[in-house]
Predict the structure.
Amino acid sequence: MSALALEVLHITVLGYWLGSELVINSTYRYVSYSASMPFGERNRLMDHVMDVDQHVRYALVLQATLGTMLLALYGYVPGGAALATIAAAAGAGWLTLVELTHRWRNRPSGLRLAAIDRGLRYVAMLALLALAAAIAVGALTLPHWLGWKLAAFAGVIACGLGIRLALMGFYRIWQVIAREGSNAELEAGIRRTYVQATSVLFGLWALIALIVALSVWKPSQGTQLRIDTFAQGEADVVDPGTEVLAHRHCDDLLFGIDEERRACEPAPGEIPG
């Protein structure tokens, strides 16, 4: 799959993610503020919420996978097509874990898989923050906007975990209502968990908006990008105004912030204009 097709898919998944979040939040709110509704119906709607929540999990894994593939194919990190293939395989494995966790959620094995899935998210979050910090202090010579984008994505993962914690509080109260029936205090607790989860969700949406802005704007930070060992050819220099990366090999060329590829073969040491 071409890098351009991956970019289109990357953007499409973002819309898929936000749409799923809206469905989840609106249904969750409806259940939380419908104390007069029969419990069986409310419970059925919450089962639907958890089914739709799978789409959010899919989207997060897809965004992490596609983002890594694009970083590799556009030469921001070493590895090229090989790393992109590894990222695709790892993403497929993570998606399988997410699906099995959902299908087996009522089994002991499902609880273990859920713990593994949460662990992967913690690892991904810490790795993203470490990369962002390395870019910020100059240990990695990559654009600063990319570092901010990685840090924002770590924040998105953290927000997702925060929402999950709020939902855990919801289900603790929900189990009491299922056993003993509802009352004003329990219903107030249900609404409180909704407000907590939604507050975190607003933060998640703000971070996604920041990621989109950085992806489109790509604010120039001067000469920050050099790839001396990333591709097969020796890298030349980077134009700080347009972030032009010149390689001896045509397959590794990137031109300007739109990352337009040109079919040419520059001579050694020549900087394409």
